[in-house]
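Exam revision sheet. Question 4 asks you to relate a sequence to its structure. Input first:
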Amino acid sequence: MTGGDDPGADLLSRVFLTRVVEPGDETAGRWLREYGAPEVVRRLRAGGDVLPGVSGTRWAGLVARAGRAEPRRDLEVARDAGVRFVRPGDGEWPAQLDDLGDARPVGLWLRGRPSLRIWALRSVAVVGARACTEYGAHMAGTLAAGLAERGWVVVSGGAYGVDGAAHRGALGAGGATVAVLACGVDRPYPRGHTELIARIAEQGLVVGELPPGDHPTPSRFVLRNRVIAALTRGTVVVEAAYRSGSLVTARAAQRLGRFTMGVPGPATSGLSAGVHELLRGEAVLVTDAAEVVEMVGDMGELAPDRRGPVLPRDLLEPAARRVLAALPGSRAAPPGEIALGAQTTPDEAIARLYELRSLGYVERHGDGWKLTRQAMISVRDGHGLC
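Answer key, structure tokens:
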């Protein structure tokens, strides 16, 4: 029996399994692929017909969980909380999650009105350290706001630090954001982000694999990151130590063929050490939303050229710049000496010197020529006049 034989049975079976199997369980994913959700549930309820690939102890644990699963009640609780359930094959299911193979979610619980499938098509993950610095929070918020203003959906994990700053940045710009939680979407975590997650649910989407009321665990946080990576076009890491969970998201993105980007920090900062390690590999350095969009966007969505200010000297012809560069910094020099330094003739040097005098770069002292006071100040302050 397959899930396609009875859509209602497949729905209830998958809701049932979100209560029984852990997120990212590839063995359970293989069962779903080979037997279909209703048959997997039938065997778990019966208890005796063990599915392949698990020990007796683990099977007994799954059967015990199955004895407590109440899918109809979970759907009722979800409906009362404004939560819906989507599964592979539904119109709202993001096809890119199928790239996870047998680690694909059994289904997703969603809180919020927008379509996850549509939003995921133009989304970027912004993740990073929980205990971030002011710089990290500023960069995450600024990046997220810039992405939102350009019509991109910002996806993160709802945690303290960089995640929260990214969500707030997108919301503050009036944009779209998605929080992927490691618990039931009706149970905001962390508690300190209850208001933020409620606001995300009103303006965006709150997503999770766990059924209503379920709690987070360390392993669920790690496994949640694969959903963030698969759901989005690319992942940007803002501040991450060597053992940061956000690096798990970045590496998952790399395995899935998604774009991986990092925002650099001080070389002396331990909170940026993980990002810098990524940048030494295949990740791309980014500093603003335009550079992120250049990576993940469509052809032609290019970041502007990065150039320093145009200086007066840049407007001079090459021959005049060579003559200007040949003048000594602290004394007057005769035209012959200047011509030698500029690799030109004395007559050409004199012609260029008069041109430079009209522009205020040089002045004549007897038979010699010298930089003006203003030109000297420009040289001293690093304006590159000569």
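Marking note for examiners. Residues 382-386 have pLDDT under 50 and may be disordered.
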